[in-house]
Structure formats: C-alpha cells, structure tokens
Amino acid sequence: MLAATGTALASPIILWCLVPFAALAALFPVHPFDLIYNDGIRHLTKTGALPKRGAPARFACGLGAVWVAVTVWAFWAGHTTLGYILGVSLCCVALLVASTDICIPSMTYRAIFGPPKPRQEAPSEG
To answer: Does residue 90 register a pLDDT over 60?
Structure first.
C-alpha cells in the first residue's frame, strides 16, 4: 500500500521509507514485517509463525530495495514518467506475489542459481 501511495503521489519521501525494510529483509532471514506478525499478531489470532525466508525471497527483497531506490531517484530527478513506470510495475509484481504467491524475482533467482539447498538442522544433543 505504501508503494502504491508513494507512486500515485509521485512521492520520493514515502517511497524512500520502504527502502530500509526491503534492505533488512534482504540481509536477514526474517522480514521486519514478519517480526510484527510473529511476535504479536499471531498470538492474537492463534495462528502459526511465519517461516524464515530463504535465499530466493531475500534476493527478491534486495531487488525490491534497489527497484524502490531507483524509483525514488526517478521522481527526485524529475523523471516522473520513468518513476511512474517503475512504481506501477513494482506494485504489479508485489500484487502478484500477495494474491497468487508467484514471485517473479524469486523465480529469477532460481533460474540463475538453481533451487536453494535445503537447510541443515544442527544435531540435537541427547
């Protein structure tokens, strides 16, 4: 919603607020918004925790951080048409993921690097 609002208003400030969230989601296996759900909302709704994100999802978030940053630059530099093209396409990709769980950047990761290797659990003591 913030990306759509920032794009509709051609607001680099609103869009710039998204960059740290996307960058943190690229660096760590838990998205900042997942923390809000896992540490709060799920206890109220009595649902399970969201899993940690693998390399394809983190790649997608890194790509998203760069995409939003370039969109911010476009609006700040006065390239409004480019800003709208980038912003609308970002919102479309995000809507696709939210509505169908199809993530084009994650698919791109898999096409380039192959499927991620399964995580190895540490042996339990006992």
So the answer is: yes
CB 57 within 8 A of CB 102: no
Helix axes 80-100, 55-76, angle to 10 degrees: 150
Amino acid symbol at 74: A
pTM value > 0.90: no
Q: Which residues are CB-neighbours of 15 under 8 A, at least 6 positions away?
A: 2, 3, 6, 7, 68, 71, 72, 75, 87
Cβ-based neighbours of 34, under 8 Å, separated by 6 or more: 50, 53
Yes or no: say if 15 and 70 are a contact pair by the CB < 8 Å rule: no
d(CA 77, CA 40): 39
